Please model this.
Amino acid sequence: MTDVLEARSSILHQPKAVWAVAFASVVAFMGIGLVDPILPAIADELSATPTETVMLFTSYLVITGVAMFFTSWISSRIGPKKTLLAGLALIVVFALAAGLAGDIETIIGFRAGWGLGNALFISTALATIVGAASGGTSAAIILYEAALGLGLAIGPLLGGLLGSISWRGPFFGTAALMAVGFIAILVLLKPGAVDGAARPAPTRLSAPFRALARPALGILAAAAVFYNFAFFVLLAYTPFALVPLGVGDAISLGLVFFGWGVSVAITSVWVAPILTRRMPRTRVLWLVMPLLALDLLAMALFVHSLAAVIVGVVVGGMLLGILNTVLTECVMEATDLPRSVASSAYSGVRFLGGAVAPPVATLLAEALSPSAPFVAGALAVLVSVAIVILGRRWLRAADGLQESPLEEAQAISLGDA
Model:
């Protein structure tokens, strides 16, 4: 009987619609790491500084974060399918435009438009997978995080391969793959596939902002701001730290971050579930976040060692895979809010946290030393875990524990304030 139940809950037993959204999610997340291997090449070809170049991340993440707050409002009115398709269409258009651009400022602008499409897609994709998948919320989130990991792994590899031909190649490649994802969702995602409802209940425009007043979601979002700062220090700054060590070409950088992305995928799918079966989710965060801080400190200490930096990147990927999955599960389980609202609010805040990291990291490196960004990332992670520990009384639901009537009443009062 147990074997049957486990088979039923397997992430591999999913409707075609879920696989279509998961495939498009892989391609969407490829866009995050796609530019990593070509950052030095873009800086060289377009005579841009490192800080100007990493604005490709910042413009993308700022618009993604801001737009995330409104995706649940849009999705609840036009439906998840149309929202997903609109997001994919925007990514196709702006990725193609970025590949045709001739200067760094124009590419930064088109990456912002890309971020708008990404916001419409990513926030809705998480709610769609959770709503349409079989096997419960945890299985759906593992599938979503697996898509994230695969996208983060394949993105740098594809970016490196296409970037070795031209820095424009990765942008054109993304546009083509997103077009395939658009067709897959158009054909396979049927009305009513999400939570069995063809017409979603309209969501108030203020819902994601009001959701952040819920103590549990507010605490997790605050922790995610600092966590994502560290995430994007590792992702966006490390290519520039590797260039002085002899790894500056697109293929080499692509291989390094391919290893990072594979690590994210493996631990998010296999290791995170093992840990959360044995201990509360918040305890996993308490244990793994300090390990990520130690990893970043080690990279700072051995920033002039190629082997140490590469090992630090891969180990960081392992830890990030666990944390991504556990944080997402916490968000989905911590409140009784609609999934699309919780996803929009949490994702909006965390992407804004990530947007700050790339330019801050390069400016710290220029003003202080190449190791300074990694130290800043480590400190940000420690702040994140402190927030989770101090807010643990509000995160009981995230651990599968029921709040007392008094705690529930306090949470509702604060959320409606």
Remarks:
- The chain has one domain: 7-416.
- The first helix runs from residue 2 to 8.
- The CA atoms of residues 216 and 395 lie 5 Å apart.
